[in-house]
């Protein structure tokens, strides 16, 4: 089945292109997702009519900025920048509960690709709360439900880092499986017919390896993220932190 719309292009030059990756789209083929038939690499290649190289990754259920190189030399240069921590990545997420105004989560994470070995890696995420909301939705023994819209900036690049760090501080991302809250995920499915993960890669910033120009690429929220933000009143300045 063909995707009805082309992938939304946020930025394009002679050697780089960025898209606003839809929630639910895999970046490339994976043996752990045999049910998928569409992949960002192939879709963008066909859309542009040329080979593309993903220089970083986003989880299948994460939407937002996804950057590709258009030649091998740029691919190598950008992958090195990501590896050296020279690319600033900013995400937004809707999470359970009222988060603190600011918090640095410094919590080592075990490597998923070595399940039989106790290999832990330094992992640091900076959190800033943008808005909070409390709605009249019973949850368990509580008559209301509380949620926060947070900005997350990973200072390291570990697999599922943001998802694991938010679960660690007991503010899991809504829709996250398996690190999130099953009760909240079920609640959102039943009440709002929402079955995605509310994590969005909002911006990346880096220095162009050839021109030295500072590049900032931002992605607007996609439909489902916007719908849930509106439903939970998290898109209104009324609930903004400090208001």
Automatic annotation (TrEMBL):
Answer whether the UniProt record assigns the keyword Signal to this protein.
no
GO biological process terms, alphabetically, are: enzyme-directed rRNA pseudouridine synthesis
Q: Which UniProt keywords apply?
A: Isomerase
> Which molecular function GO terms apply here?
catalytic activity, acting on RNA; pseudouridine synthase activity; RNA binding
Pfam families reported for this sequence: PseudoU_synth_2
Keyword Isomerase present in the record's keywords: the answer is: yes
Instruction: Give the matching PANTHER family.
Output: MITOCHONDRIAL RNA PSEUDOURIDINE SYNTHASE, TRNA PSEUDOURIDINE SYNTHASE C
The protein here is known as Pseudouridylate synthase
The segment(s) forming the Pseudouridine synthase RsuA/RluA-like domain are 15-168
Q: Which Gene3D superfamilies match?
A: Pseudouridine synthase
